[in-house]
Design a protein that fits this description.
The complex is a heterodimer of chains A (383) and B (739).
Chain A lengths: L3 E2 L6 E6 L5 E6 L3 E8 L4 E9 L5 E6 L6 E7 L4 E6 L7 E6 L6 E6 L8 E6 L3 E6 L10 E7 L2 H7 L11 E5 L7 H5 L19 H4 L3 E6 L2 E10 L2 E9 L7 E6 L10 E7 L4 E10 L7 E2 L6 E2 L11 E11 L6 E6 L5 E6 L3 E7 L5 E8 L5 H5 L1
Chain B lengths: L59 H14 L8 E3 L10 H6 L2 E7 L5 E8 L16 E6 L7 H27 L6 H19 L2 H17 L7 H12 L5 H8 L10 H10 L3 H9 L8 H15 L7 H19 L5 H14 L3 H7 L3 H12 L6 H11 L7 H10 L3 H11 L1 H13 L17 H14 L5 H9 L5 H10 L7 H14 L2 H17 L3 H10 L3 H18 L6 H8 L6 H6 L1 H14 L3 H12 L6 H11 L13 H16 L1 H20 L9 H4 L4 H22 L2
Antiparallel strand pairs in B: 2-3, 3-4
Helix pairs in contact in B: 3-4, 4-5, 5-6, 5-16, 5-17, 6-14, 8-9, 8-12, 9-10, 10-11, 10-12, 11-12, 14-15, 16-17, 17-18, 18-19, 19-20, 19-21, 20-21, 22-23, 23-24, 24-25, 24-26, 25-28, 28-29, 29-30, 29-31, 30-32, 30-34, 31-34
Classes of the chains: A mainly beta (383), B mainly alpha (739).
């Protein structure tokens, strides 16, 4: 597949696929968004539409799930998040909402990826605040209300004194958990430690409501946290929960993997950092107040076998461990991205290489290949 | 399978395990270690016990060893397959310059497929403003995950293999019920090998060819056709994978006037014998033009050809071998009496080969495969001795582990099936998965599944998942991938289907129906709902509103149908009435033929549609009745009230007969009063009315019956006042007329 001239008149800052991978949106400092459609069977991309979406650099794009129609969110240096809708399969877009709560450029925007989470939109920018907007009425997508806002790492921002800086592209990142996650305590409440694997409840049989734990990962400078929607005093709200530790410099990107590849047994989150490392964290469910969780791993999925059964469905937390880390880029890493099953991770950065990592038989990750953006020297081509 | 531009880091070819090996990293284990057993890795309690007993056993530790190796090589730059992006934007050797320009590379994977898009960005938005942006920096660069892009030719192989797998699964169940003793696997193994053979010839892929060699070896050793012995099958594998002597070598000697006088004659005869090519060997002796006049020599030659031609084959080979070998031994002893030295030496060596003499076979062989196959064929074809022969062979001819297929075959012959599978996985996941399935059906992997592997999926399942994911991520083979994933134990396979099924683009109703069929089979109710809702949105974007409503009705989604109804009404009030599609037309015109939920939910729009139709037909009284009932509808969203009042204006004209009775007029006035009383509804209504008037002013031509033709330039609130005024007049007119 050949490179495609997008028609942008400045650098491209982000691309986004629609849910099917059949549409591709690009955004640029030229303030335009361009939409391309995949042409079968050549699999090349063809320009479908182009529109001026902001009044400054556009940094990030995200498509909503297709059950909400063709919705595209963008965020910009102009401090706004905008939601655009197409009712003709991408040929034209109309701006339907402008969200302007941020006090600085907005650097990343992301729609929820799991059907059970409703139509929500998270964003983060140079003010270090993560905001979640909710379209409570999917039939009226012009109405979005700010459901949550919180400084991800106030201490870090203050310590670094960079909150007002303008050129902090990639200093903040956000990504939703794409999979349904079991609300562990009640899921495990009827388990017997003597149960055979075949008797264990099947994660894939749970309903959307049973799996709908809303959570996302957000980074601010060198700190990375999981935020989870929890029942707090009878009200659901997002809370900062686990930290993914160990980053020694600014985290450029975070990506939450689908847990399908591990049968819902645990979660994987990848980070890309300025310290040159790609890190993969493994988050395994445990009950709050149970510091040493016991797990049983089996073919039917890993479930906690704690005998202590709580009434609060939302009371669970993760044991976080660093599963793997790679410094093959030998330079700053800027982007990490997962495949649909959470079994392949890509990373890219200042070395001009895209590196691919695959889950091996034991669940650890191994390098499977490199795509280089650097041409081959002519003498090697001749050879 | 995968097109790439070779680089200096990947030009060592696909067939070796050199540090810059160009294929995927081993996932099960690494193979830069000899097959020969060691104390460290031998663990009889965990090992698969092959019919060919071996001291080498594969354990879960071998799997974990991968990571030791991985850590060891982590510092080795690019110890993996490396390729260059098409139209790579960074000039060779100018990476540092590129970085100095503040550039970085970003990449995002496709949500479903095995590829993604790379692009160049700047490290600091403000810092890049002064740097000129080159044209290549405004491009996007498609990139594939190495070793995952399937060519059309390869997809054909995947589909053929899948069909065979389905047939085997069906037959295995049926035959299992009828006659468990009958092994159907060799028949299917032979067919699989044929499919693989056709594919590798068609695709010209070196790794697929190597996979074929390993696969052939494994089938020869474990899935042998009952009409031949394993020893024959192993020899057949050797003769196919490494044919010796070549046709040229044979013809160079046998086309001379007196082949017997050629220096390489006996070498040829012995090689043919060593390779079990008895008929050819016998023919060489017959056509050698030996000019021996003595009866002893003639008799010896006749005996030699007779022994060669009566070599036991097929089903009789095993039981007849001992007697035949005795003949060969006796023949060798008799040959010692021959006076012709050259003939004596040649025939004794031949006899030694046929009786399976270790030293002779080792001396005449060129590889461990040849030694193993010859000893297996001639010495004792008991399956349990194969690994023993292999050990004898590799002691003299070490396995070249840099050749992947050789490493795989060595593992097969040594009975190390998990290792053989891991070699195959490295060569081709599809082949490895199917071979693992054959092995699993023959219960060859049972002993690997133990307490140590409890947290790991079975080999066969893991390979099926890897292959299934690749299929699911390849356009056109998602359903094949789902079949494999379904057939794995536990939740992983099903979870992957569940996760990926909504990502499959339903480009037509057939695909949609197939997807919903899988959802139904696997009880993925939520995914089915998501797929249908997404499909209905697609149908809406294609103006297939009726179809969208029908599908939503199929999942009982009243919420979305109601939303569509209001969208239709909104769009019509804004842009005028458009011709509905056939299905929607049916719903609107014949509501009694609609499903109950659709009839109820689209009623507001159907009422408006009827109003406009009657108006078009000039039946204003009937039209007014429909409009009046819509205005009195208690659940009408406030925003529609304003424009619908506007629609009323032409019907309240004094220049035409009265269209509404007094009670209807008063009811409308009451609705108007209620609407105005609710500030939110009123504001929404006035705003939308203003929008419809704006829209009317922007279009060059409105439909003749559009009320806005006359009132487009009047402000929205004035329109409402006008309606109120006209309603009062009309009530008074009615009052007067009804006196």
């Amino acid at each position: 597949m050949n490179a495609l001239a997008t028609g942008h008149e400045d650098l491209i800052h982000d691309i986004a696929y629609d849910h099917y991978g059949r549409l591709l949106a690009t955004c640029s400092s030229d303030q335009y968004i361009k939409l391309f459609t995949r042409v079968s069977p050549s699999a090349d991309w063809s320009l479908l539409s182009s529109f001026k979406a902001h009044d400054a650099n556009i940094f990030s794009l995200s498509f909503a799930l297709p059950q909400y129609g063709l919705l595209l969110a963008s965020c910009s240096e102009d401090q706004t998040v905008r939601v655009h809708r197409s009712i003709d399969d991408g040929r034209t877009f109309v701006k339907i909402a402008t969200l302007s709560d941020s006090s600085g450029p907005v650097h990343q925007v992301a729609f929820t990826k799991f059907g059970g989470h409703g139509l929500k939109l998270a964003c983060i920018g140079t003010d270090g605040v993560v905001r979640v907007y909710h379209a409570a009425d999917p039939t009226d997508l012009r109405q979005w209300h700010l459901a949550f806002e919180k400084v991800v790492d106030k201490a870090g921002l203050l310590a670094n004194g960079v909150a007002a800086a303008k050129d902090l592209q990639g200093d903040f990142a956000i990504d939703w958990c794409p999979s349904g996650t079991v609300r562990a305590p009640w899921f495990t409440s009827n388990l017997d430690s003597a149960m055979d694997d075949s008797e264990l409840p099947r994660v894939d049989r749970l309903t959307i409501e049973e799996l709908a734990v809303e959570q996302f990962v957000a980074s601010s400078m060198s700190k990375v946290f999981v935020f989870r929607k929890r029942l707090n005093g009878g009200i659901y709200e997002y809370e900062r929960t686990e930290e993914l530790p160990g980053h020694t410099d600014i985290v450029r990107d975070v990506a939450w993997a689908s847990n399908a590849g591990v049968g819902g047994r645990y979660e994987l989150i990848a980070t890309a950092s300025r310290d040159g490392w790609v890190r993969i964290f493994k988050l395994t469910t445990r009950r709050i107040g149970e510091p040493t969780a016991e797990y049983r791993n089996g073919a039917a999925g890993t479930v906690s076998l704690n005998e202590d059964k709580g009434d609060d469905y939302d009371e669970f937390a993760y044991d976080v461990e660093l599963l793997d880390q790679f410094d093959h880029h030998k330079s700053e890493v800027w982007k990490v991205s997962w495949n649909v099953a959470g079994t392949i991770l890509s990373s890219s950065g200042d070395d001009g290489r895209v590196r691919f990592w695959r889950a091996a038989y034991t669940g650890k990750f191994v390098g499977v290949g490199v795509a280089s953006a650097e041409q081959i020297p002519q003498d090697e081509v001749d050879e | 399978m995968f097109s790439f531009t070779p680089t200096s880091r990947s030009d060592s070819g696909h067939s070796s395990f050199s540090p810059s090996f160009g294929g995927p990293r081993p996932i099960f284990s690494t193979f830069n270690e000899p097959v020969a057993p060691t104390k460290e890795n031998a663990s009889p309690t965990k090992a698969f016990v092959s019919p060919f007993a071996t001291e080498r056993s594969f354990t879960v530790e071998d799997v974990r060893d991968v990571y030791k190796d991985d850590e060891d090589v982590e510092d080795e730059e690019d110890d993996v397959f490396t390729y260059t992006l098409q139209d790579a934007p960074i000039a060779a050797g100018r990476l540092q310059d590129w970085r100095d320009r503040g550039r970085t590379l970003k990449f995002r994977l496709s949500p479903l497929h095995n590829n993604g898009i790379a692009w160049i960005d700047e490290r600091s938005v403000d810092g890049g403003g002064e740097v000129h942006v080159a044209p290549e920096e405004m491009r996007i660069f498609p990139a594939e995950i190495p070793d995952s892009a399937l060519s059309d030719e390869y997809i054909k192989f995947v589909k053929d293999a899948h069909e065979l797998y389905r047939a085997l699964s069906n037959a295995d169940q049926i035959d299992g019920a009828i006659d468990p003793s009958e092994n159907i696997l060799p028949k299917y193994a032979t067919t699989f090998l044929q499919i693989l053979d056709v594919a590798r010839r068609r695709i010209f892929d070196e790794r697929l060819s190597e996979a074929y060699v390993v696969c052939h070896c494994l089938f020869a050793a474990y899935f042998v056709d009952p009409t031949i012995t394993r020893a024959e099958a192993v020899m057949d594998w050797l003769n196919q994978s490494d044919p010796r002597p070549t046709t040229e070598e044979t013809s160079d000697i046998m086309t001379t006037a007196v082949p017997y006088n050629e220096p390489g004659f006996w070498e040829l005869v012995h090689k043919l014998a060593l390779r079990g090519l008895f008929l050819q060997c016998s023919n060489c002796l017959k056509e050698a033009n030996m000019l021996h006049s003595d009866s002893e020599s003639k008799k010896a030659l006749q005996t030699a050809t007779s022994i060669l031609e009566t070599a036991p084959k097929g089903t009789k080979a095993f039981e007849g071998h001992r007697q035949w070998r005795a003949h060969a031994i006796a023949f060798g002893e008799n040959c010692t009496k021959l006076s012709d030295t050259k003939l004596r030496k040649g025939l004794i060596t031949l006899a030694n080969i046929l009786r399976g003499d270790n030293d002779t076979i080792l001396a005449l062989s060129e590889s461990w495969q040849e030694v193993t196959a010859a000893l297996f064929l001639f010495h004792d074809p008991a399956p349990s001795r194969l690994s023993e022969y292999c050990q004898v062979a590799v002691a003299q001819f070490p396995v070249d582990f840099t050749i992947i297929s050789e490493a795989g075959c060595a593992a097969v012959i040594a009975g190390d099936i998990p290792k053989a599978l891991s070699v195959l996985e490295q060569l081709d996941v599809c082949v490895a998965a199917h071979i693992a399935d054959f092995c699993d059906r023959q219960r060859m992997l049972d002993d690997f599944y133990n307490i140590e592997t409890l947290d790991l999926p079975p080999f066969r399942d893991w390979l099926f998942m890897a292959h299934g994911i690749t299929c699911c991520a390849t356009p056109g083979t998602w359903f094949i991938g789902a079949t494999y994933l379904k057939d794995t134990e536990g939740t992983q396979g099903l979870s992957i289907i569940k996760e990926s099924i909504t990502h499959v683009y339903p480009d037509n109703e057939a695909t949609l129906t197939e997807l919903l069929g899988i959802c139904k089979e696997l009880q993925f109710d939520n995914e089915a709902r998501e797929i249908v809702i997404a499909w209905s949105k697609l149908q809406l974007s294609r103006n297939q509103v009726g179809s969208a409503i029908e599908w939503l009705d199929s999942i009982g989604n009243s919420f979305e149908i109601r939303a569509i109804t209001w969208q239709l009404l909104e769009s019509t009030l804004l842009n005028g009435l458009t011709l509905p599609d056939d299905i929607l037309q049916r719903f609107l015109v014949s509501p009694r033929l609609c499903p109950g939920m659709i009839r109820e939910l689209i009623a507001p729009y159907a009422t408006y549609f009827a109003f406009k139709n009657h108006l078009n037909e000039g039946d204003v009284v009937e039209a007014a009745q429909y409009l009046a009932s819509l205005l009195q509808f208690g659940f009408l969203p406030g925003r529609f009230f304003g424009p619908l009042l506007g629609e009323l204006l032409p019907l309240l004209s004094r220049s035409q007969p009265r269209t509404l009775p007094t009670n209807e007029l008063i009811a409308i006035m009451n609705s108007l009063y209620q609407w105005e009383k609710d500030p939110q509804k009123y504001n929404e209504g006035v705003q939308f009315l203003a929008k419809t008037l704006d829209a009317a002013r922007e279009v060059t031509e409105l439909a003749g019956d559009d009320w806005r033709v006359e009132y487009a330039n009047i402000p929205a609130k004035e329109v409402i006042k006008l309606v109120r005024s006209k309603l009062v007049s009309e009530v008074s007119r009615a009052y007067l007329e009804e006196l």
